[in-house]
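User: Hi! I'm a student and our assignment asks us to look at how structure tokens line up with a sequence. Could you show me two examples?

Assistant: Happy to help. In each example below, the sequence comes first and the structure tokens follow. Example one:
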Amino acid sequence: MKNNFKNGVLSFALLVLIYQIFSLNFLTGKMMFSEASTFSWEETQLENDYLDIQNISDVSGNSDGTNLIATRNGGHIYLSQDGGISWVERKPAGDEELSWGASAVSEDGTHFLAGVLGGRLYLSTDSGSNWAETGPSIGTNKNWYSAAMNFDGSIIVVSEGWGVGRLYLSTDGGG
């Protein structure tokens, strides 16, 4: 089972890369995206143009690129459900600006996961409308470096980064 899950996560990540390639330009603060079939890039803007998006730390999406999440170091998170045309700011932890790191999206676009660097994981099971704190043990802060989930968000894997080298696996949707 573990090898099948590992291969599934790698296959999912490869599909995301094949169908939708993302690039963040940290010098200009622009987020760029391209459909692999066109080999061209378009700039996309977050909903609040006045925000400094130079601190975008992670971007994840499903394989066709319609459901996207961007995490911001020193701010909030942003969701797009139209392939990056429009973005909506979300505040899973309230108004507090946090250093967001890892992100993941389920293939069906109903589950979004975002991790705080030196903090907690937050999960939405209703397409980003509501968020709940989750993780290996409530109250435990980690540096959430990367994340992935399966089609419906029932299997989630997250990594604790920067030299720690730990993976955490949930087979019950983060519950």
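Example two works the same way, sequence first and then tokens:
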Amino acid sequence: MLPRTVESSRRGQRGTLMRRSRDRILTSHAGSLPRPDDLIEANQSREAGTVTDEPGFSARLGSAVADVVRRQREAGIDVPGDGEYGKAMGHRVNYRAWWSYSFQRLGGLELGTQGLYDVPPTRSSPGHVVLTSFGDRRDRLRFAAAYAGCSSAYGQVYQQFSRQEKFREKAQELSFKALMYDNNLPEAYRAMGLSYFLWGKFDEAAASCKKAIEIDPDDFIAHWTLGRICFTEGKLDQALDLFRRVAEIKPGFYAGHVDLAQTLMGLGRTADAEVVYQQLLQLFPNYLLQNPDDSRARLIYANQLGRVGHKDRALQECAKALELSPGDPVMHYNAACMYSNLGETSQTIAALRQAIEAGYANFGWMRNDPDFASLRDNPEFIELLQGR
């Protein structure tokens, strides 16, 4: 609180007093806010040097600032900010924006020959404090793993629980952020590989997974994703080697065992596949006791029960699984696999139609799936795959 004399003096000089939270806490905002699309496009043109109407750009910038201030006031912000609209951003997410507006605002700047992330780290010593390199910053080292983990989580949600496009897009966005913070992090390349695989961009997915494995030869998720890419493309021998490696690195990862068994079946190695299926039967009861809501695991377990002749138990587990995840395309697909193994052709086709209607689109996998070997000549099955 200013002394009354000073406060009175300032009232006389400026006509207004500083706003204070006397009767209630005033809200304020400072920092960057999302730009309108046309302002982003204008900034892109300005950065590229193609803007010829500078007064027009300034007018649009001014109106955008006025609009964002108005919207803050409507939301109840007492002391709004300009959203940092004066700092040019040519993309919705742009962490290098300051490079653009620093050159616009300051003279005497030029880019050096050494890349920002190529500068080696430095360490302080007693009496000699130095700044380390940009790529060695603590936030970058720690945030990279966090973003990679979040990307993988969104990818798994999309792949196993809900095929909403927003989850796949978020997985991809966060994998790029992870690599931006640390371009030598295997988890980041693994996450990017999974996001590209879910997007159907198999070449990019394979390249990302191979990079992750190059950095960390024991990254089982990278091996698994690369194996699924190979299986989808019909490269079963390569898929077999990768899924075997997954089982070696992570013996308790049931999805890897399932894919290993399917690949062996696809190669005609039925006896070897049955050994893996028996391992799954032993793995699932304890797993489901600890994870009773894992609908995907429950449905795969139902499939294995059907394989060994426990049809009624298989149908019961299948019903529980579908109840846990209604409308999930992957669940309908896996249910189709179980029905096919039980010899229920009409239910198999019906479940596949439900899967496709719900958004299932990995037709390469469907085409090579040994669970549907008996349907290869079925007209309805052929129709489902036609043109896909």
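Here is something you could point out in your write-up. Residues 28-102 form one domain.
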